[in-house]
């Protein structure tokens, strides 16, 4: 019997959210199902769009690269069978370019501002065979954008965004 088999769906879902901030690849292997799907992957880099622990870990690295001191404060957890809803606050400091993607490639790049943010999120996770197999999220993206100075953008920041997007496209 694996260690995650004795863990409740709620505990497993909370662990999956928390390891986004500081978990190792092995942590993702322990809690994420090999067939897991992240329904938020469409705006993430291509390496995040793969299924299973590899995709979830790539998402964590994408977030950690852009946001230092990444943390999740869990406020409420509600479970109904194998579906778990988590209300949380994600916080961090914007220290590196943060790129948002479409299926065609890089869409927008936000150069680092050095500013901190704290935004509420709700995560919905489905558990199967003792591991997370599906994830959806609702985030306060506008609140994050305002806190980090992305909106309303200054002319100088718009120029920095265009330059960062050009660099990201060349790197891809």
TrEMBL record:
Matches recorded under InterPro entries: Cyclase_SnoaL-like, NTF2-like_dom_sf
Protein name: SnoaL-like polyketide cyclase
GO biological process: polyketide metabolic process
